[in-house]
């Protein structure tokens, strides 16, 4: 059991919180909207605590369960507080108006931008962006454990994330250096586009990408 | 039953040929190496025929089961012969030396480059690049039909490809316009990288990407 901090109190924060509590980690939820944060902490139950922006970051692993722009702001704001910690970027910086492009600079990724804004000693890892909240909270799809694709430049950080992923009943897959986040995010441009497409009535944010067998 | 032409006589040509013959299409294999082409035609059995570069293209659907650079050459060479036909680009223009970049110009894709080199009346579609030859030949993974992701600017062409995909026992998924090939190819930079990685002993070109459930 170790301490996990989650920035955010929305669907993805809830989903990752549920998984981490199931894995018997203690979970600190940090969100700006105090009421929403308290509601999530209550729902998560024993092992969960909450706080606002002034709170001391307790987790050795910090999940950024917030949109891309917010993620870069959070790591900027917390500065050296995140040094030595594993910082997990989960964002999909897709243009949500068109599902036809990214909000990141060409030749980069949300995760790399987060790393640029973070303390140089923060261990930034990309993970969980290919998991939709509902399937992540359920922890499985079609009776099989979700795949969690992990990219990062620190082997130690990826091993820590892989350990909590496995402990929460999911399958960690190390896909290489942090720049592989470009492909992880590009994938989701396509797969998120399918969820909103009127041509695909069967895809409703309840799918998951699996490597089979 | 309709006529399919396949350029190439390697693993992917064999896999797509097996699927098309199973779907009761007749298959024309066009390859430069006559002996290899004849061998594949023999293996495919009834319904298959072969030819060299001088052969008349018989298929209304033409699969480019050749590497990226070869695909652009083939569509250039055949010029207006391909006008009005559905041309299926299957390539993964990955840098195979590093698995860390693409061989295509930035902001493009193999499929879009093929379209640039082809007759403006050829109906270029991206499909099958996410299927490895062995799983494609088997037609299933873990007891489930393979997903075939299809991108293209012609709805009519995508419907024709979807029909032959479904007839061959696989699940067609229309992912949008031809430029979605960028994401389909980017995905494979990552997923092909896993197959060759010494850290992933379990991934040996026998996996498949599925959207579950």
From TrEMBL, chains A, B:
Residues 3-93 form the Pyrroline-5-carboxylate reductase catalytic N-terminal domain. Keywords: Oxidoreductase. Pfam families: F420_oxidored (PF03807). InterPro entries: NAD(P)-bd_dom_sf, P5C_Rdtase_cat_N, STEAP_metalloreductase. It comes from the Bacteria. The keyword Oxidoreductase applies. GO terms for molecular function: oxidoreductase activity. The keyword Oxidoreductase applies. Signal peptide: none annotated. This is Pyrroline-5-carboxylate reductase catalytic N-terminal domain-containing protein. PANTHER family: DUDULIN-RELATED (PTHR14239), REDUCTASE (PTHR14239:SF10).
